[in-house]
Amino acid sequence: MKSKRILLILLASFVMLLAACQDSSEETGSNSDTQSEENSGSEQTPENSDSAAPDEQDESSNEPSDETPAQDPSNSADNSDSEESESKKEEYLAKLDEIDQEMTEMMENSTASNTVEMKKEASDRWEAWDDALNEIYDVLEEQLSQEEMDALRIEQRSWIEHRDATAKEASLKYEGGTQENVEYTAVMADVTRERCYELVNEYMK
C-alpha cells in the first residue's frame, strides 16, 4: 500500500515537471521569434542604415562649393602696379596741361611794355617748364631700369644741345637788338615744354 502511494506521488511529480518544461520551452520560442522579428524590422529600416543613399551621396558631391577661389597674390600685385603707373602718367599729363594753360593765360594777359618786362615773362615761362622737366626726370629715374635710364641720359644730353642750338638760331634774327635775349629765353621755354610732354608720353609708365 505504501509503495503504491509513493509511486503515485512520483508519477504526479513527473507529470508536473514535464508540463513545466513544456511551458518554458514555448515561452523561450516565443521570445526568440519576437526578438527575431524585431531584429529583422530593424535591419530593414532605412533610418538605421549607416551609409547614405547613392542619390544623396551624388547630390552632396555635386553641390557647388560656397568658397571663393583664392586670388593669385602675384596677379593682384601686377594689377596694383599697373593701376598705380597709369595714374602717375595721367597725373603728370594733367599737371602739364595746367602749367600750359597758366602760361598761355599769362601771355594773353601780358602787360609787359618794355624789353625788361618781356624778358621777365619769358624767364618765368622757362623756369616753370624747366621745373616740371626736372620733376618728370626724377620720376623716370624711379620707374626705368638702369639700362633704360643710361640710354635716356645720353638722349637728354643730346636734347639739351638741340634746345640751346634751336634757341640760339631763333634769336639770331634779333642779333644785336634788345629782343635777342627775349627770343632766346622764349624759345628755350617752348622747346622745354615739348620735351616735358614727350618724356611723359613716351617714357612714363
TrEMBL record:
Compositionally biased region (Polar residues): 27-51
Annotated region described as Disordered, given as residue ranges: 22-90
Keywords, comma-separated and alphabetical: Signal
UniProt xrefs under Pfam families: LprI (PF07007)
Record InterPro entries: LprI-like_N
Keyword Signal: yes
Coiled coil spans: none
Residue ranges constituting the Lysozyme inhibitor LprI-like N-terminal domain according to the UniProt record: 109-199
Signal peptide interval: 1-19
Compositional bias per record (Acidic residues), positions renumbered to this chain: 53-66
Gene3D superfamilies listed in its UniProt record: 1.20.1270.180
Protein name in UniProt: DUF1311 domain-containing protein
Species per Swiss-Prot/TrEMBL record: Cytobacillus gottheilii
